[in-house]
Amino acid sequence: DQQVKQNSPSLSVQEGRISILNCDYTNSMFDYFLWYKKYPAEGPTFLISISSIKDKNEDGRFTVFLNKSAKHLSLHIVPSQPGDSAVYFCAVYNQGGKLIFGQGTELSVKP
Amino acid sequence: DADVTQTPRNRITKTGKRIMLECSQTKGHDRMYWYRQDPGLGLRLIYYSFDVKDINKGEISDGYSVSRQAQAKFSLSLESAIPNQTALYFCATSETGGAKETQYFGPGTRLLVL
Q: Which residues contact B14 (CB under 8 A, 6 or more apart)?
């Protein structure tokens, strides 16, 4: 049973526009959430995180929003750049202290 | 130099063969992990180790074994490879394992089992 879901396998956005990547989770006890970015032939790299005590965390062009009542988080990239083209994974820490990953969303930013 | 390295980067093997994937890190982290990535399934945890004397099964450990030879080295073995073990394998490390830890990933090993 998938505890972390990214329902959009792919997303295509024009350069300069906003990219919005979505993630849903099932367990209301999850309290720490992360986004990882992965380029081809490389391992995932940490991008941004958010604790459940916040509803927003911003780092430059990247902002993560958390809606606890909906058990939903999203990653906004503004403005999107071609170098942002990658696979994005959301991840959460379970009660055992281990990361659970979503399926990933492949973002393509077109010039 | 990369902080987390994996060898080999690519491997083709045949059903029934035993193979080993190796991971080394220079970050000085105590905690190490092995994941596999499959299309449409994200990354799933195979085994993890919190220190040299500690080995724990993850979500999908069947058919795999690991060895933590030193703080810096964590190997994954497939005792008798089967085609559904064809996947991209990642090693990762972390410092504390706490709620705010960041895991650092190696570049991955692409394994094809024929």
A: B81, B113, B114
What is the DSSP-derived secondary structure letter of residue B34?
Answer: E
Which has the closest alpha carbon to B23: B63, B61, B73? B73
The answer to whether B40 and B33 are in contact (CB under 8 A) is no
* Interface of chain B toward chain A, CB-CB under 8 angstroms: 4, 35, 40-45, 48, 58, 90, 92, 97-100, 102-108
At A82, the amino acid letter reads P
Calpha distance A22→A20 (Å, rounded): 7
Decide if A49 touches B, using CB distance below 8 A.
yes
pLDDT tens column, A49-94: 999 999 999 999 999 999 999 999 999 999 999 999 999 999 998 8
Q: What is the pLDDT of residues B79-105, one digit of tens each?
A: 999 999 999 999 999 987 555 678 999
Across the interface, of A6, A46, A101, the residue whose CB is closest to B102 is: A46
- Asked if residue A14 lies in contact with residue A37, where contact means CB atoms within 8 angstroms, the answer is no
Q: Would you say A38 and B108 are in contact if contact means Cβ atoms under 8 Å apart?
A: no
